[in-house]
Amino acid sequence: MTPELGIGALHQIWRYPVKGIGAERLRAIDLAPGMPLPLDRAWAVLEEGGDASEGWRSCRNFLRGAKGPSLMAVTCRVDGDVIHFSHPDRPDISVLPGHDDTALFDWLAPIYPEARPKAVALVKSPPEGMSDAPFASISILNASSLRALGQKLGQPLDERRFRGNLWIDGFAPWEEFDLVGKTLEIGGAHLEIIERITRCRATEANPETGKRDANTLRALEDGWGHQDFGVYAMVRTGGTIKAGDVVTVP
Questions:
Q1: Is the per-residue pLDDT at 5 higher than 80?
Q2: pTM of the predicted protein model
Q3: Contacting residues for 245 by C-beta, under 8 A, at least 6 apart
Q4: How far apart are CA 99 and CA 81, in angstroms?
Q5: Dihedral in degrees, nearest 10, Cα atoms 65, 174, 186, 59
Q6: Per residue in 13-43, pLDDT tens?
Q7: Partners of 124 in the β-ladder
């Protein structure tokens, strides 16, 4: 950490309105107790043969970057009820979820492997969201750990590879794992750190190009004996957070 024990800063805020498809950077956001970051993984694209039941479902049922790395290059912007999507190999598209779903599937088709099951439905997530954890999680990642991993790989790494919600800085590399069971205070919000996040091949893809260009999982295993990066948290006390806020461990 910084010399003053327990203090860091909120470096970046990100959300992903459609699971696995599109990253949006935010300057500030309001957090509510027991809820995910607003509009994070609020929708998910169900693949053919996937579980069509209600509620939270495993990531294996949906289109995602581990299956189609080009999805990692999608960015988005929420404007009211409309989501605007961009990709370096596709024209921009604006989608009203629940109305323009087929147009979105057609837009995704050229950048998703043909051998993979096709998109069949845009499903609305339950109130707890549709993160890879079966609870209302917010992912917290450590910028120092990202720099350490980039040094191990010999290349800088874009934060979007890891699709985290909150990036904190000022902590030692991998110190986020020591925070499990503790609470972070950011702005007026308190977040309890629940567990570590084990990663998948989505992190191998460069978000600028959608091409796999870094063996992140092997680097984590070789360097630190695990494939974990970041931690899941739950909001215990709500409040407004913004980039640049002080992060403390009370």
A1: no
A2: 0.95
A3: 9, 10, 186, 187
A4: 11
A5: 20
A6: 999 999 999 999 999 999 999 999 999 999 9
A7: 43
Confidence of residue 7 (pLDDT cuts 50, 70, 90): confident
Per-residue model confidence (pLDDT) at position 191: 98
Is the CB of residue 14 less than 8 Å from the CB of residue 25? yes
Query: How far is residue 60's CA from residue 116's CA, in Å, rounded to a whole number?
Result: 12
Q: Residues 169-190: what's their mean pLDDT? A: 96
Cβ atoms of residues 42 and 17 within 8 Å: yes
Q: What is the DSSP string of 84-135?
A: EEEETTEEEEEE-TTTSHHHHHHHHGGGS-TTSPPEEEEEEPPTT--SSSSS
Distance CA 244, CA 203 (A): 25
- DSSP, res 53: S
| C-alpha dihedral, 143 to 34 to 95 to 72, nearest 10° | 30
Q: Do 223 and 131 contact (CB within 8 A), yes or no?
A: no
- Pair 135, 107: CB distance under 8 Å: no
pLDDT band at 2 (very low <50, low <70, confident <90, very high): very low
**Contact present, 170 and 3 (Cβ < 8 Å):** no
Count each helix (H run) and each strand (E run) in the chain, helices first. Answer: 3, 15
Where do we find the tokens 């020591």?
178
The Cβ-side half-sphere exposure at 2, using a 13 Å CA radius, reads 12
